[in-house]
Amino acid sequence: MEMNKTILDLKREVDTIKKTQSEATLEIETLGKKSGTIDASISNRIQEMEERISGAEDSIENIGTTIKENGKCKKILTQNIQEIQDTMRRPNLRIIGVDENEDFQLKGPANIFNKIIEENFPNLKKEMPMNIQEAYRTPNRLDQKRNSSRHIIIRTPNALNKDRILKAVREKGQVTYKGKPIRITPDFSPETMKARRAWTDVIQTLREHKCQPRLLYPAKLSITIDGETKVFHDKTKFTHYLSTNPALQRIITEKKPIQGREPRPRKNKKIIPQQT
After folding, report:
1. Fewest CB atoms within 10 A around its CB: which of 28, 59, 222, 226?
2. CA separation for the pair 234, 198 (Å, rounded)
3. 10 Å Cβ neighbour count for 92?
4. Which three-class secondary structure state does DSSP give residue 130?
C-alpha cells in the first residue's frame, strides 16, 4: 500500500512538472519571437525540469520493479510456509463428527481416539503401538454459534503410524464412534486442502473412464494412461498436458455420462412446489 501511494505521488509530480515545462516552453517561444533571444536562466530552468522528470520516471520504474520482486518473494515465502505447515501436520489425523460433550465424559480427545480404535480396529493395537503425542480440538476456542462440533487433531509419533491407521480406515469403509458415523482424514493446511479439493471433479470424471486417478501427498494428481503413469503437481501442468492429448481433453471437457446408465423416461405428472 505504501509503495502504491509513493508511485501515485511521483506520477502526480511528473504531471505537474510536465505541465510547468509546457507552460515555460510556450512562454519562451513567445519571448523568443518578441526579442529574438532566449535568456540563459530560462534555458537552465527547462533543463532542470527535464532532469526532474527523468529522475521521477526512473524512480517510478524502480519502484515498479521492486513491487514485482516483492510479489515473487511473497509467493515463494507463502509456498515455503505451506510446505512447513504440511510437514508439521504430516503425522496428524483429523477426526470429524464427534460431539463436544464426549470430551468431558471420556476426559479428553486422546481417550476418544483410543475408544474409536477399540470400536473399529481392535486388532490394530496388537499390530502397532497407539502412542499419542498430542490430542486437541481445533480451533482452540469454542464458538457457541457453531452448529457442528470442532474437529479433533491427533498427533501420532510418525507418518508411518498415521498412514497405517488411514489404510485401516479405507479398508473398513465406514468408521463409527458409539455406533454413529464419523470421519478420519489426514490433516492438511488450508491451502493444501483447497488444492486437493480442486481435483475433485477431474478425479471423478477420470475414474468413470478407467484412468485410475489417485490423489498423492500433498495435492498431486496421478493418472495411468496406456500403462504409463503421469503425475501433475497442479492444474496448470495438467491443463498443458491436456492440450497434447485430445482424447483425454474431450473426456474432461465433455464429462461423458457413466456407461450403463440411461436416462429414465419422464412421466407427465403435476408438479407440486416444495414448501420452504
Report:
1. 226
2. 9
3. 19
4. coil
Task: Identify the DSSP state of 273.
Answer: P
Does pTM surpass 0.70?
A: no
As a whole number of angstroms, the distance between CA 170 and CA 150 comes to: 23
**Rounded to 5 degrees, what are φ and ψ at 58?**
-65, -40
Q: How far apart are CA 182 and CA 116, in angstroms?
A: 10
Surface-to-core class of residue 202, CB atoms within 10 Å of its CB (0-12 exposed, 13-18 middle, 19+ buried): buried
**pLDDT, tens digit, for every residue of 101-135?**
998 888 899 999 999 999 999 999 888 878 899 99
Of 79, 71, 73, 70, nearest in space to 234 by CA: 79
Return the amino acid letter for 205. T
Which residues are within 8 A (CB) of 198 and not within 5 positions of it... i.e. 6 or more apart? 219, 235
Other residues' Cβ atoms within 10 Å of the Cβ of residue 172: 12
Instruction: Give pLDDT, residue 6.
Output: 67
Return the CA Rg of the chain. 33
Query: What strands, in cross-sheet order, belong to the sheet with 228-232?
Result: 214-216, 220-225, 228-232
For the chain, which ranges sit under pLDDT 50?
256-276
Report the C-alpha gap between 16 and 27 in whole angstroms: 17
